[in-house]
Specification:
It is a single chain. By secondary structure, this protein is mainly beta. The protein is about 0% helix and about 55% strand. The chain contains no helices and ten strands. It has a six-stranded antiparallel β-sheet, with no helix packed on it. It has a four-stranded antiparallel β-sheet with strand order 4-9-6-7, with no helix packed on it. A hairpin with a 3-residue loop joins strand 2 and strand 3. The protein is globular and about 35 Å long. The mean pLDDT is about 95.
Length: about 110
Amino acid sequence: MIIDYSEIEQQSIDRFKGGNGLLVTRNFVDEKNKIMMSRLTPGANIGYHQHEQNSEIIYIISGVGHVDYEGEREEVAAGTVHYCPMGKSHALYNDGGDDLVYFAIVPEHH
């Protein structure tokens, strides 16, 4: 199966999960996974949240930022991966002057 993000409608979400700034995303969603190609604008963040029924894997394509993972700061940049297992909490921040571009997969654990 091929997912062509150029065919998926782009969404712009302000203050995603209670964060600040703008998240621009294209999402493929089915009953088992959410697969996202996204970017956080400079200074934006995704609010701190817990993964209760799923986990999340975030691959950073470009930009620089950090993750607040369970109260610990983790630096992220192009080529790094952040993993948030089910039951854990995190937030993602764009610390740079350019967009923080990332690819994320959220598998559901039923």
